[in-house]
Fold:
Amino acid sequence: MQKSKLNRQFFDRLIDALMPVFAVLAAFAVGAVILLLQGVNPLEAYQAMIVGAFGSKNGLADTLVKATPLLLVGLGIAIAFRGGVINIGAEGQIIMGSLLTTWVGLQLGEQVPGVIVITIGLLAGTLMGGVWGAIPGYLKAQLGVNEILSTIMLNQIAIQIGYYLLRGPMMDPAEVAAGTNIPHSARLIKDIDMPRFTDIAQSLGFTQSAKDLNIQGFLGELYGVLVEPTRLHSGFLFAIVMAVLVYIFLWRTTVGYRIRAVGLNRHASRYAGMNVKRTMVLSMTLSGAFAGLAGAVEILGLHHRMFEPTAVSAGYGFSGIVAALFGKLHPLGIIPSSILFGGLLVGGDKMQRAMQVPQVLITAILGLVVLFVVSTDYLVRKRQSRRVDTSKGKDEKDEDVEGTAVPTTKPEVSA
Amino acid sequence: MTENLTLLAIILGILHSGIRLATPYLYAAIGETFAQRSGVLNLGVEGIMLMGAFFGFYATFQTGNPWIGLVAAALTGSLMGLLMAVVSITFQAEQGISGIGLYMFGLGISSLLFKTMLGTVEGVQGFRELQFCITSSFCLADIPVLGDVFFNHSLLTYGAFALVPIATYVLNKTTWGLKVRSVGQNPEAADSLGVSVTGVRYTSVILGAMLAGIAGASLSISLLNIFQENMTNGIGFIAVALVYFGSWTPLGVMAGALLFSSINALQLWVQVLDLPIPSDVAVMLPYLLTIVALAIPFRRSLQPAALTKPFSRGEN
Structure:
């Protein structure tokens, strides 16, 4: 009797935990219907996608390269949502961060050792993103300005600032000289490239390729990602470390606790003597800081120059929301989630080449994932409240498991 | 003397483009007014507009009849509204997030269909500018100075402005309008009086989305007569902000829409005349203005009390 009850409880929890997976599967099912309507075999298309994203060392490397900004942005989104504010402004925060990082790189470039420039560059991007997040946070806390709207407006403003700088003071002197006037900056010097995985492996003494060592199949590809020259850079490791730090921050520090408390119940937090307004500003600032950091890492690790603002932010501000939601707004959950969606972005590109299916299908599927994930939250809440009802307040009630106490995307938000 | 004449011409040009460019803002923002008055923040307007713009264009392209395009856009918008309503009202999803999902879905699908069904940017003959010709030789559009400003627009533009008094009347003088306002202000009270909160919110969101679809079509089959990927370029998001800007009244929304479209027109002229203002800064202006306007404190008291708050009977 007791055992079957426990089993059912476990089963219920399992279903709740798997809801986002169901949501993604449902989104792909709709995607399959769209593919069928286009006269494309969805199984073949999805196969091309998966093989493209995870089947080769270059595919895997690109997947992790795209997972990096998704993870960093997702961490910021999670902090904001946990704190009861919504940050739709990561696009703008990425752009502002990458602009200042590029500027720092251009200014300090050859005068200071590379490691120091990289450090200052990352800090500068973080700071600028934080400022761009603090503005809507402050406007919300002090003047009651809806942060959803202000962050959307700030995205557009950041894009225009980017174009202004890249067409003016930051434009590549070579472009000015040639008269082509393409809005991008000069390439930063190679000394301030964040090291790639292959550079790290070389310096650790791994110089042989998978072929040399005769490692076959998927293991060989995996070895290739770590050792052979790919686009994968140390930003990915950096992002993983950040995820662990954010986890510790949110669940092991007083400030993190305060952010979550304000997110769960603003009024109770105020009653408990917390400074709710300051905490909201802090959540938004940190959220923007992580998006700015993502921009900095994109510049120093991948692009090495600033170009079209929307091509640098590349929609990560929105797809980062998807990654954060799918990771249940948990810093460690966002790690696998960002790899999955990084793979989806890479796979979409491969699918376009193999099957002539436009890559924008991925944007539509991501949109559906958002719609389905936020919808399944409702089902989870319903199921939980039903369980509480049937147990009539006995000890069977769902107690809050640490770290999963707020699995929903339902912060207390007033417009 | 000639300088004065060109200045007058420029001012008249800005007025004409201002009225013209207000069209998509008006449809989208007045539609959104209904949704928000009922308590639902539909942030997916941009995605709905893109879908409306595509299907409106495609139907016109295939049939040559812009009216069929208009109907197609309205239907597409309504379906997108239904999707938003199911997610936000029935499943009580956080509206800021579900709206972003709807935006991404609309952006993705409209771009996908554009690439597979059209392939390249094509042109169509959409709604023509009306000249208001009274006799064969005299048209109102030929009236000196102001004729062109007021009497040389497409039917969709006049429709957008006609919507302002209609929406005001519907919201303030009809039973349904009262219900919309009541479920947005105090859904519990409305529910206790037998008003179906869910039903009224569904119709408001779907009506708003239908107008957003038409807003998209006003770009693709009236103002520009082409379809391009992401052609709305943020108009849908501005429209959502315009509702706040206009304090949730159609008249206020119209004032905001005209202000925005005039600044847009002004910015086009800044580029044409090569004035010493960087065009990027000019483009930025409307967005800055929105943030400033949102910060004006008295507006908040006018906000529907239950905006963004899902309703479920007998909970809490």
Observations:
- Confidence is low (pLDDT under 50) at residues 393-408, 410-415 of chain A.
- Chain A is about 75% helix and 0% strand.
- Chain A touches chain B through 50 residues (CB under 8 Å).
